[in-house]
Amino acid sequence: MFNSKFTIKNLNNLRDNMLGHLDIEFIQVENGLISAKMPVDQRTKQPMGLLHGGASLVLAETLGSVGALTHIDDNEFVPVGQEINANHIKSTRSGHVIGIAKPIHLGKTSHVWEINIEDEEGNLVCISRMTVAILKKKKKKV
Questions:
Q1: How far apart are CA 14 and CA 62, in angstroms?
Q2: What is the pLDDT of residues 89-122, one digit of tens each?
Q3: Could you list the residue ranges forming a coiled coil in this record (predicted)?
Q4: I want to staple 126 with a disulfide (CB 3.0 to 4.6 A). Which of 79, 96, 117, 141 is the partner?
Q5: Domains in the chain, please, with CATH?
Q6: What are phi and psi of 103, to 5 degrees?
Q7: How far apart are CA 26 and CA 38, in angstroms?
Q8: Is this structure's pTM higher than 0.85?
Q9: Contact predicate 103/111, CB 8 Å
Q10: Known catalytic membership, residue 61
Q11: Mean pLDDT for each 10-residue chunk of the chain (142 residues)?
């Protein structure tokens, strides 16, 4: 199930959080694929001037979580990151990195997403896999 109400425009309006702080911008949202770019600048670099591995994981977790959100009924369920891992393959010092997330498994209670992060030349910078728990929303007490 693809929830088409989540568009690039409305996802990019979510700025009062980590997305805005790191200037993560969604560039593609469709059935089975979501991508975003993130600048490599003073906010996302480690002291040696390279892209910080934690910043790569922020981008990966953002894509895995939002990817799961676009594939559930968000009136009934909420996606919650359960586990994430990453291998940092290549360093980068400037420009943008682009994360591309695709589902490996879309189950009723969990999703598994693979996220590749590339530099602007298409070189693989980081590969990540994320497990997302799909939880039933709690009913609000009146």
A1: 12
A2: 999 999 999 999 999 999 999 999 999 999 999 9
A3: none
A4: 117
A5: 8-136 (3.10.129.10)
A6: -75, 140
A7: 9
A8: yes
A9: yes
A10: yes
A11: 90 93 97 97 97 98 97 96 98 98 98 98 98 93 72
Q: Which amino acid is at 118?
A: E
Tokens 């591309």 -> residue: 100
Instruction: Write the CB contacts of 26 (distance below 8 Å, at least 6 apart in sequence).
Output: 8, 11, 12, 34, 35, 36, 66
Tell me the two tokens of residue 129.
Answer: 């896999």
Interatomic CA distance for residues 67 and 29, integer angstroms: 8
Whose tokens are 């590969």? That residue is: 127
Given the residues 25, 61, 83, 114, the one annotated as active site = 61
